[in-house]
UniProtKB/TrEMBL annotation, chains A, B:
CC cofactor: Zn(2+)
PANTHER family: ALDEHYDE REDUCTASE (PTHR42683)
Record has Protease as a keyword: no
One GO MF term: alcohol dehydrogenase (NADP+) activity
SMART domains attached to this UniProt entry: PKS_ER
Highest taxon above the source species: Bacteria
Pfam families: ADH_N (PF08240), ADH_zinc_N (PF00107)
Designated name of the protein: Alcohol dehydrogenase
Domain Enoyl reductase (ER): 8-342
PROSITE patterns noted in UniProt: ADH_ZINC (PS00059), D_2_HYDROXYACID_DH_1 (PS00065)
Amino acid sequence: MFQARGYAVHSATTPLVPFSFTRRDTGPNDVRIEILYAGICHSDLHQARNDWSNSLYPMVPGHEIVGRVVEVGSDVQKFKVGDYAGVGCLVDSCRQCSACRENLEQYCEEGPTPTYNGKERGSEQLTFGGYSDQIVVEERFVVKVAANLDLKAVAPLLCAGITTYSPLRHWKVGPGQKVGVIGLGGLGHMGVKFAKALGAHVVMITTSPGKGQDAARLGADEVLISTDAAQLAAHAGSFDFLLDTIPVGHDLNPYMALLKRDRTMALVGVLTDTEPLAGVSVIIGRKSVAGSAIGGLAETQEMMDFCAEHGIVSDVEVVQIQGVNEAYERLLKNDVKYRFVIDMASLADA
Amino acid sequence: MFQARGYAVHSATTPLVPFSFTRRDTGPNDVRIEILYAGICHSDLHQARNDWSNSLYPMVPGHEIVGRVVEVGSDVQKFKVGDYAGVGCLVDSCRQCSACRENLEQYCEEGPTPTYNGKERGSEQLTFGGYSDQIVVEERFVVKVAANLDLKAVAPLLCAGITTYSPLRHWKVGPGQKVGVIGLGGLGHMGVKFAKALGAHVVMITTSPGKGQDAARLGADEVLISTDAAQLAAHAGSFDFLLDTIPVGHDLNPYMALLKRDRTMALVGVLTDTEPLAGVSVIIGRKSVAGSAIGGLAETQEMMDFCAEHGIVSDVEVVQIQGVNEAYERLLKNDVKYRFVIDMASLADA
């Protein structure tokens, strides 16, 4: 065990404050990572404030982690000291179930071990996330990060990136397809970049007319303002795939009308209730409302390699750890383009 | 034109009454059918009472039609006088769109022509359905019915049958799979029969403990009482496919928890709003809520042939046309096992 430092929240109603805690020593299959950057995911805020009624305190949030390997266990094969490495939402899983055997650890039938707000497998020890100076993770749950990428802008790929990349791949988005990305935030801006890089004709679907220029810069070929009934009607029945990144409950039916027959809209942002779904929205045209959660480790590595090849990173605003509570308040107002990333070097001043 | 007789409803609040009207003469590609039996579909009742706000009066309901061919046009190839024939929910479509070209006329992008409560293509002439003595339909929209089947019990195959057969085939239900049929009514009892005949392990999922014995008789291997939390928990994550035949708005989430990862629940009964869908119900396990509408003509013929081969028909209660209003009232109370069929010979006494 060694002493680690970070920021933690101690209850649903208190701010993040400096926190000291212990982490396990580097085991034979582990890598110890000095954390350089940690992205702020909307789910950090949900869990810090116990919005999902499953919070464990003290909680050190952060599951978009990029850093430098500072120690490797004796059996580690993929990493050496000095490598750049990433850790996402998961740090362990059962490894036995059909999902784990298919490299879909995020759907582990016994429940994967979350990077924070969980417990180490077979233990009461809480897991602590990326708002901290170091983390120790088994190499199977660590991905390699290419040195040619802007590291601070890589961090959000570990959650926002893989969450949008995985469904685009699963539903085989590619050239010749018209793909809509609904909602322009941390997830949506990555969805636009990936869908474009995969060769699709990309339509950014947003309620905000002001986001059009940004959408074009991110790679969108068109912008569809979803509050405009005429625009919705003009695009009816024309989409091959929709990626719905809206993080709060909303009406799915107007979007379902945009899909071609036999096509799918995948939800990735909303864990809570949507508004009522009309049966006719799926029955007429044999359409599907599906969902997708992050990605497995193999696919996360594939995404990282894809990003290195295509020069894809997130659009980020860097903050210091001392400003994390203010960043949460701005996130609540969608006042970020498009992801906050904490420069963990600032922790030295905490 | 010739004079036809049937029963019609003239407004949302009046009963079905005897009605005389004209039908077109038999064109070169048409067959004229003497109607022997007409099933009563729940949607007949919805449309008679304008529940979907799209009713056209006078309305002669009925889209589960079985009869005998009494005249064929000069270019008709599939039928000869004396053949048994069936007509379902559609009597025309555009024939040009991608759906029509793929034999999925039910998803015709210009909208198929319904057997009743619609208008003939390019005309203001209302279409009139099966609660009548004869019907004239282009042969493309007529299926052949094998003489070895019990004709009165064949009628519901034209809607309840194809509505359940098509999704079971589309989602490739077969041996080695555990399939749930939700709701035991006109659709559900056909879903059980087809899923069993396709080789699946079939679980009847119902709120009514009393339906267990019937489910077994229909071919179900197990019965799951969906109001019993312990039974739901015992079956969690175990189904390869769910066919949801419930005809009214309901909560989808408890059923979604029954599915394995990457599997689908198909809605076929509810055209109106469901209760709110939780994002987590599809995101965790990458599941899908889909829908399916009846079937195309080629698949309807395939189903008829499948039924002839496997000896599958509906469980019906035969009524006289004079009792149709009483049958509607009983249908509202689910007081039928499992489909009313009108013996159209009774029309001679009307």
